[in-house]
């Protein structure tokens, strides 16, 4: 899922306050790389030194016969590689920027390394961006504030999206998940080379948001990552979410759709090799990228291919623990979601609803809400009669019985339903599965609800963080942003430091509470106490138990009970 545009403007400016950059060349196992050292002024006015190396190839260009294939490692450099500019994004389509520059030669990564006195090795944090598995690029994410303040080496990875990353014919001709394989290759590259950039290869944390968070979860399922990284943070990106994977039928439909668009033969099992050959021969990748848009009526996403994602491991994270223990329990994990994650769903699927909430009769609004609830619950119901009962129950659960005319509260309830149905409940399942009978590693759960200091007009009803709202705080609010004064970043900086302390503490030790002192102790989750940390709209962090217990009970117990009775009658 995309981070809302407001936060992209806030976070992803390339320029903060710099002194003149100094070029710097280092020797690595893959050859010499030239980057630069800068002085970065943080929002509170303090200055830090960082080195940055941009657009480093980790994979061979996935073009021609390598399109729709697992990536190959990049070749070593015969001469010094100039790492002063970001690599181009992988092919994708933006309605607002249909002619944006992009390239299939996109398997690049950016590195931001703190520069302090001494020769200690810093923990490493690898960020995987979100974007519905159809968009995203490393150049939108500026890692220097997090690297400088948190004293970690930041790595941001480009990977294939849309059909280039996730086309699947559901056989060995094009099994899919190339974007996940790209991420894995990048993580291996970091493991093998990060010591040259001041990183500690024995302390690697991967983290990501939305589709990037789901990617992080899928990386923990893949046994080939054993010993490569130690910790993982999934922000509003649960592996259990329906949007995070495609079924075999969905994958077939997408491959069929793309084949028809390019006059390739239909992807029948006996013809899939010809389909893949035909699609590989398409010269104008920008035309194919057009069908990577998240605004189409189909989705590109990972599949259970029994190679990267095995059905056995996927069932384990879905809450079916078996022996031996699940592979993903080898990694310490932070898993969480945002209080208003669902606002993104309302905005993307029902764009007129939010505007109309202020003017439409309440009866019409309830009809709209009922339709949205029915759409979400239909896959969970065995028949239409049961579906009606489930929708009635949800309408009651997410209604303001005491004050049904409170429009702002009604908006929040609609958002809560979307948040729960698309993000929170799935994240809760990820948390419970990871913690189940796990005496090897720790599980930490959070809910983030600290909104950006200035909400967009028309969103006054939101008293918390929307989808992607935590990202600027995690990255440290780079300042001098177009349209936003440094004062805004300065205002947000104290809370941003709280968030960065938890994230970088976890990267350093596996415990978000140390070595830096934190505002509130964040206790590990267990099935008895269900501890979590809350990042509120105002004030500092709060420790709690049984996050949104009533809403969880509704989705995990009450709705399945209605469905079960429906199957028996």
Automatic annotation (TrEMBL):
Domain Carboxylesterase type B: residue ranges: 24-555
Keyword Signal: yes
Alphabetized PROSITE patterns for the sequence: CARBOXYLESTERASE_B_1
Annotated EC: 3.1.1.-
Entry-linked InterPro entries: AB_hydrolase_fold, CarbesteraseB, Carboxylesterase_B_AS, Neuroligin/BSAL
GO molecular function, one term: hydrolase activity
Top enzyme class: hydrolase
Pfam families assigned: COesterase
Top-level taxon of origin: Eukaryota
Annotated signal peptide: 1-21
Keyword Amino-acid biosynthesis carried by entry: no
Annotated keywords: Hydrolase, Signal
PANTHER family, per database record: NEUROLIGIN (PTHR43903)
Family of this protein: Belongs to the type-B carboxylesterase/lipase family.
Protein's name according to its UniProt entry: Carboxylic ester hydrolase
Organism field: Patella caerulea
């Amino acid at each position: 899922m995309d981070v809302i545009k407001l936060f992209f403007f806030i976070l992803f400016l390339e320029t903060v306050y710099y002194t003149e950059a100094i070029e710097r060349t280092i020797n690595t196992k893959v050859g010499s790389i030239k980057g630069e050292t800068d002085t970065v002024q943080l929002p509170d006015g303090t200055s830090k030194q960082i080195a940055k190396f941009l657009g480093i190839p980790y994979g061979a260009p996935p073009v021609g016969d390598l399109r729709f294939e697992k990536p190959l490692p990049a070749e070593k450099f015969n001469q010094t590689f100039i790492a002063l500019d970001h690599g181009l994004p992988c092919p994708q389509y933006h309605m607002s920027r249909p002619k944006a520059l992009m390239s299939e030669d996109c398997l690049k990564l950016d590195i931001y390394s703190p520069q302090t006195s001494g020769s200690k090795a810093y923990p490493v944090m690898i960020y995987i961006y979100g974007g519905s598995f159809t968009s995203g690029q490393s150049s939108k994410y500026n890692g220097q504030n997090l690297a400088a303040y948190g004293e970690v080496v930041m790595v941001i990875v480009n990977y294939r999206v849309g059909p280039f990353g996730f086309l699947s014919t559901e056989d060995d001709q094009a099994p899919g998940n190339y974007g996940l394989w790209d991420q894995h290759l990048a993580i291996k590259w970091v493991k093998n080379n990060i010591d040259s950039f001041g990183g500690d290869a024995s302390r690697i944390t991967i983290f990501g948001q939305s589709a990037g968070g789901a990617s992080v979860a899928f990386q923990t399922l893949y046994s080939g990552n054993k010993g490569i990284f130690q910790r993982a943070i999934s922000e509003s990106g649960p592996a259990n979410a329906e949007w995070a994977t495609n079924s075999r039928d969905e994958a077939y439909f997408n491959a069929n759709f793309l084949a028809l668009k390019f006059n390739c033969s239909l992807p029948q099992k006996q013809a899939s090799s010809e389909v893949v050959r035909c699609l590989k021969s398409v010269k104008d990748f920008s035309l194919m990228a057009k069908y990577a848009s998240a605004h189409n009526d189909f989705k590109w996403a990972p599949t259970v291919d029994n190679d990267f994602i095995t059905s056995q491991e996927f069932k384990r994270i879905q809450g079916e623990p078996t022996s031996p223990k699940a592979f993903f329990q080898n990694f310490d994990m932070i898993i969480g979601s945002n209080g208003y994650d669902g606002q993104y769903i309302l905005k993307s699927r029902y764009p007129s609803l939010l505007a109309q909430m202020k003017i439409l009769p309440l009866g019409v609004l309830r009809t709209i809400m009922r339709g949205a609830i029915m759409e979400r619950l239909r896959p969970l119901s065995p028949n239409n009669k049961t579906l009606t009962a489930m929708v009635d129950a949800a309408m009651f659960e997410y209604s303001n019985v005491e004050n049904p005319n409170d429009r702002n509260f009604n908006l929040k309830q609609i958002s809560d339903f979307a948040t729960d149905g698309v993000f929170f409940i799935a994240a809760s399942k990820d948390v419970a599965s990871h913690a189940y009978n796990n005496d090897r590693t720790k599980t930490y759960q959070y809910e983030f609800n600290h909104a950006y200091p200035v909400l967009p007009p028309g969103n006054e009803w939101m008293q918390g963080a929307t989808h992607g709202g935590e990202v600027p705080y995690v990255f440290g609010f780079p300042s001098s942003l177009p349209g936003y004064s440094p004062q805004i970043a300065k205002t947000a900086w104290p809370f941003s430091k709280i968030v960065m302390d938890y994230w970088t503490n976890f990267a350093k030790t596996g415990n978000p509470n140390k070595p830096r002192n934190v505002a509130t102790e964040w206790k590990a989750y267990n099935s008895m106490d269900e501890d979590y940390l809350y990042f509120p709209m105002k004030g500092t962090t709060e420790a709690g138990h049984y996050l949104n217990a009533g809403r969880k009970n509704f989705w995990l117990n009450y709705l399945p009970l209605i469905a079960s009775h429906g199957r028996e009658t």
